[in-house]
Amino acid sequence: MKSERSSVQVAGTFAESGLIAAIASWCECLQGRQPLLAALKHLAEGLDARAICLSRHSREAGGSVRSVIYNLPSSVRPSVEVTRSYADCVLGRYVDRPRPASVWFSSFTEGNDDPSLEVFQERARIAETVIVALALEEKWADYLEIHLPVAPGGGAQGLFNTLADTLSRTWIRRSPGLFSDAMLASRAQGHSPLREPILSTANPARLSRAEFRVCVLLSRGLSTSSVCSELSISPSTLKAHLRSIFAKTETSSMTELLYLLLAPWKGEDRLAGPAARRA
């Protein structure tokens, strides 16, 4: 009876804080009617979360992790922000094969060899991190990561399970390209994993000389066949270079890579002209 009352109280708290409206916003977003970041903002407010991260983990060995992140404004939270996914810290070896709609709590995790989440939680004053497995597809697994400043009560576990089922079912039916569009929008607002242009003298993605040359030619509008001709390499060699470039720049397609190459940067310091050709 006590547990039932606790569940009702938690449900009432979530409803009062706007969770119902947040779920409605999430559903509208997945149909392309709202930006994904707006849905993450509403979910954070509805769950009283300090930050929410939507992450995509490649299922390939050593594959990339890409994230769309919403942090509460700095005026109402500690200055430490979420800048990466922590799903691997909670799920461990299961991160590439989760059961969709399953819920994982960081406080239930034992024996994790990666202390980065624990360090972050202490610095950001996060009491609990909840990981919801949204979908498992052939090449990647998608997660929603919820960082809470206050640990949820016992009745909240069942509610998170119910919430996870709704979030997962609607995510699986999302409009095509939604995650990639959100990544591009996030980077357009300055939330890029790279602090400087790819083609700057700092070479922030740590591209090899060959990879850098490929990016220079793509940024000049050359097609892939023209890049092969210009560099005297085979299509298979170019494909191998692109796989490495995608991993280092946290992109997954030519569209995303070209956006990073061509998007304007403040204080831009790109290599140009002869300097670029000598790279």
UniProtKB/TrEMBL annotation:
Domain of life: Bacteria
GO biological process terms, semicolon-separated: regulation of DNA-templated transcription
Gene3D superfamilies per UniProt: Winged helix-like DNA-binding domain superfamily/Winged helix DNA-binding domain
A matching Pfam family: GerE
Keyword terms: DNA-binding, Transcription, Transcription regulation
GO molecular function, one term: DNA binding
Keyword 4Fe-4S among UniProt keywords: no
Domain HTH luxR-type: 200-265
Protein name, UniProt field: Transcriptional regulator, LuxR family
Organism of origin: Rubellimicrobium mesophilum DSM 19309
